[in-house]
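Same chain as my last thread, 160 residues:
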Amino acid sequence: MRSSKILELVKILESHNISEIEISRWGRKIRITKNENRGNIAGTTVAATETARKNIQHQFVEVAGIAEDHTAVADENNDAGVEIKAPIVGTFYLAPAPDAEPYVKIGDHLSIGQPLCIIEAMKIMNVIESEVTGKLIKMLVDNAQAVEYNQTLFVIDPAG
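reply #2:
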């Protein structure tokens, strides 16, 4: 597999918040894993020539540096508060039914265990509950929008 294709896989890994990709082709196996503690590419196992392996590892280091730069920018933009993240991939809904009132609105005071939204995955409705007590200060997803695993849905101010 060409290093440009491997680099594309690394970009997919970073942009979709998944921790590992493994591809097997023509007797060669490529596994790309992300170090969850640092948020960048930890390493890879590639059954290829030593020269190709060195070239690929050099590109991973470059991509890892880019990912760290984006992480720093994202951290600066976050407001103070606790982020409630999507535990699964699915469709985000603010209310239990299309004609019902939303579970929460900006400014609402929340308690632990209070329903915040529903994420539909494979025709199963999963109720997402508040993990903290506080005031809802941000809603980062629109109703009926697709969400990814670990995507921030709400920001709650625990002091509120």
